[in-house]
Design goal:
The protein is mostly helical. It comes from Candidatus Cohnella colombiensis.
Length: about 170
């Protein structure tokens, strides 16, 4: 659905500006990314209104997205599947209430995974030169380290899920 809508929007944009050098395919990618993000935010916040966990959902959305931007991670083949899994995960994480030792354990595991694997799968996804990848690793670890001060159950879960998406075989 997201891909089809992105294609339709790209075709409409191209027909409105036929002389623009960007092809329909080039236009589709950012449109799909925006539709994906907006869908995740709207559906997640909608569910949070029903569960009464707007604050926790907002924390998960911001924390996960921020860490994902600097650490990378696996990409699903379909925007629809990404939205479905993301919204489900965010809703579940917003309902968590881990005890302090679980939060600490999740923070440590997340930080170790980030230090080992970040950035992961960011090739062709960013314009950040490879020489700055060690900085992205440090930024990922620092973002996770904030939860040693905050002690958020939802954030520890969000960071762990995101850190798990970084794992890939070393070549």
């Amino acid at each position: 659905m997201i891909e089809r809508l992105a294609h339709r929007l790209a075709v409409n944009i191209k027909s409105a500006a036929p002389n623009h050098p960007a092809s329909i395919e080039v236009l589709e990618f950012p449109i799909a990314a925006i539709l994906n993000a907006v869908s995740i935010i709207i559906f997640s916040l909608g569910i949070s209104l029903l569960t009464g966990r707007v604050t926790e959902t907002s924390i998960v959305l911001v924390g996960y997205a921020l860490l994902r931007q600097v650490s990378g991670g696996i990409h699903l083949r379909s925007g629809d599947i990404c939205v479905l899994l993301s919204v489900t995960g965010i809703a579940l994480l917003s309902l968590t209430n881990f005890n302090p030792s679980v939060v600490l354990t999740f923070n440590i595991i997340s930080m170790l995974l980030a230090l080992i694997y970040a950035p992961s799968r960011i090739e062709n996804q960013t314009r950040i030169p490879k020489k700055f990848h060690p900085l992205l690793k440090v930024l990922s670890a620092l973002i996770i380290a904030t939860n040693f001060l905050i002690h958020s159950s939802a954030l520890s879960g969000a960071y762990l899920v995101q850190a798990l998406t970084l794992i890939r075989e070393r070549r």
